[in-house]
Amino acid sequence: MRHRLGVVSVAVSVVSLGGVMAAQAQEPAGSSDLSGKRITYVMWGIDNYQQAHGAHLVNAAAADGAEVILVDGKVDSIIQDRAISDAIANQPDGIMLWPADAGAAGGTVEAALASGIPFILIGSRPAGVSVPYQPIKDYDVTFQAGQHAAEWVVNEMGQTPKVVLFDQLTQPYCHDDRMEGFWQGVLSIAPDAELVFRDTVRSDIPTALTKMEDLLQATPDFNIFTACGGDGFVGGMNALVAAGRGLAVDKRPVTEYAFSIDGTPPELDFLFAKDLSLMETMTLTPKENGPATWQLFKDVYSGAIDQRADVEVRMSGQLLPPDCETVAEVFQGHYGVIPQFQPLDCAAY
Q: Which of 159, 164, 254, 325 could form a disulfide with 197 if both were Cys (CB 3.0 to 4.6 A apart)?
């Protein structure tokens, strides 16, 4: 694993928003001057994409003289709710939230809206809530990836696609866009495809590893695997490899075709390995998405977009092949902003 990123520092920590922030006078609605303003962003968590998105967002805000304080939501709705409550009490100049669970975030979002502090959502939003937000909409991209997976299994492996999806059922961007797009892409090629497993699997490596170990004991007959997020995929793939699966010969899958989402460094290690069966990954584009988040907030702060408007500024991604030179250029632009990032060493593959 030559370029794996650990949990790195881009000011991603739960911070104390003390009296200095509480004492700051906010400008009236309609102002577009954000110089000297401080905005609290309660993140979903701090996986590699979240770190890169946060760093590009921080840089975009800094160009306008503003400071975005990144708060690790730890993929936990209770922790996020507390962080939003703390932010409201300290009266920053703006609040952003990427809900860990949209289904559990309704009260948190309504509290933020009721505070009168300019507010946007990222990633997903609770049903029935109108607020400007930046969803991930990857259906078209993952549909194409599902087609590629089914074509390989049918044409190269001579099998009926049997699919394992590590989903997150309460996250619309996972369930309705990423996983449903992938599944419908499979069905468009192979209408007789079988869905072996599709349920919520928390996107962290230990949880996903354990779930895959359980599946290999209970329902081992499958030939396609994907997961909604990078850490969920890495955990599942680690379990497959440990069980003698997830393997390829000269990048030709032996037992299953794997597709991953996020394009994080650990995924790229799998992607470029000739003896492993990750055949394609999708990476989000934090270099574009971070500044787009900032622009959406600016529009809400200035009044150009109403605080209760049903407005979407969509994020999506792009598919990456198992070709290091192609990926290296893309990856440098999106993830090079993280301090511990190391450029891809394509000679190592």
A: 164
